[in-house]
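Meet the record:
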Amino acid sequence: MKRTVFWAGAGIFASLVFSAAGGNASPFGVCSHVTRDEDADQVFARCVEAGIRNVRADFDWWRFQNKPEEWKSSRFAEILAKARAAGVTVLPIATGGCNFSSPTSGTPESFRRFGAFVGRLVGDFKDDFPVVEIWNEQNIGGFWPPQPNTAHYVGALREAYKAAKAAHPSVRVAFGGTAGPDVGFYQQAYANGAKDCFDIVNIHPYCMPNAPEGWLERQLGLMRETMSRNGDAAKPIWITEMGWATREIEWPKSEYGMVRGAFKALGLTGRKNLRVLAIEQSHPGPTDRWFSEVWRQELPKGAELVNCTYGDVAERLAEETWDAVVMPFDESCPLHATDVLVNHVRRGGALVDFGGMPGYFSFRREKDGTIVNGPNGNEAFRKALRIEARHQGCESSVAANGFDTGTDGVKNYPGWRSFGTKYLRSGDVMKPMMVGSGNVAVAALYEFNSDFKGKIFTAGRALVFVGCATSERTQAAMTVRSALTAVRLGVEKYFVYEFQAPETSRTDPESHFGLLHKDYAPKPAFQAYKTLIGLWPEGSMVLTDKPWRSDGLYRVAWRQPKGPRVMALWTDGASRTIPAATVAGAKVIDLYGRAVNVTDEGLSVGTDPAFVIAVGFKNDPNSHVCHLADDYRHCIR
């Protein structure tokens, strides 16, 4: 559906107040594993081609030291020399343990040793590092094993901060980028005295495959509320990872068999008038529809499947009787419905969770109906359901205990999480359904015969990550839209994850985030990011004093230091038409830098951003210039 937006006047640029997005330096960068296994010459050549000036890279402790007296830095010195030659600034992630120490052990000595590593790293390369980031995604067990521990992280952060400042007083220290905008982890860090141990707030607010605009606005608002509550509102916010994986959805055949086998194991296959309630994700999107198709295809014939919004689940469970409840596929749970979910199992109902770590990401519904973040981890929820879940899994597994997935079978099922019996009571049992090396259960059936009378089937593949890949064209649009949204909302630096895709798996989106393919050939997103960066030279200022969104239309404007003003326009769905008179005298290019012809009807704007460059009237004081007001009617000469 195409709609027309009427803007009065012959131009679309106002005489606006402006503010800096990260000072005069470019706010845009990429994440690269150039210090691990990527080709530095290829990486920096492509950076030069795209105009990328900021690269975030891993500086693993163990690569420098495996003995206290050892220090191996020559390889890193060579890479940093190539970065300097390319005009690239590297953001180092100081992370990882070594043979003789790791701050994840939680001892004061391990914090001191890690701090000494950071101090020497910063001291050796002080001319290269204006900022150092302390760890990566320490709020999840995969990066801070065996479980996240805020107090231990703050202990390591404090020592690293002191050592970094001693080595190079002007260096800025960034909080390790959290997986998701984890305000709960930040609040705990503040409670443990972290306020004076970092200079930059840092988050990884992934929302793929969904659109970024509303998500980023909500999450940045929550982050700033947390900062203000702790007297820390003045610090800048960075986003050091955000991206969209590519590949059209390619469901592993094993998933259909797993769904079929789960309902057999739960004893629901032959039940008449089977009623199943499927809870959508906290922020519904395309993934929900893909999972619904899987469930509808594999549920027993005649079963009723009802999708339920995240906010309504408590009422639906309290008011109606359901044979089975299917949890969301994004490792999340609704805090406002945990009691009714536990009661559902206590009364004899079945619960199905194919989301990996059950309930790891928690959300709650506010009185006005909005869904906001709760604390991550949520061990209390799993304990209440008597599910012991661990972050460690296995690469492949086979069926056990007579688990029947039909004629196709399930071969080499990978589970990212595993399950145990820690919280079971007398009479309760856990039966491994898929078992990998070391007898690790990556899918399990919990049968209760205590005060609980129901059953739970859980699998550790984290299916949401299978279903969240998108097309290469969509990746290009989302990359630019998220970057523009971030800087418009005041984010100082934005790093796309990631530069080169490893492409080691056909079904795992983790293999397909890159702006470049494995062979360094560019995806459309590379050209789109190049277009944006080319239009945002150093010294550009984002214009902020007028609304940037209205009725599904988004517009981010900025002023170049020695050139015209530029505006990016896009919609959240249906296309709009901007009348031709409104863009008269301006140059318009598309996401890939190609000229766009404005027809007699006007400029058609859709979900791919278009860039309007005010070259025709930038120095003409008599031009009609339209304010970016919500009603589009305030014009001045």
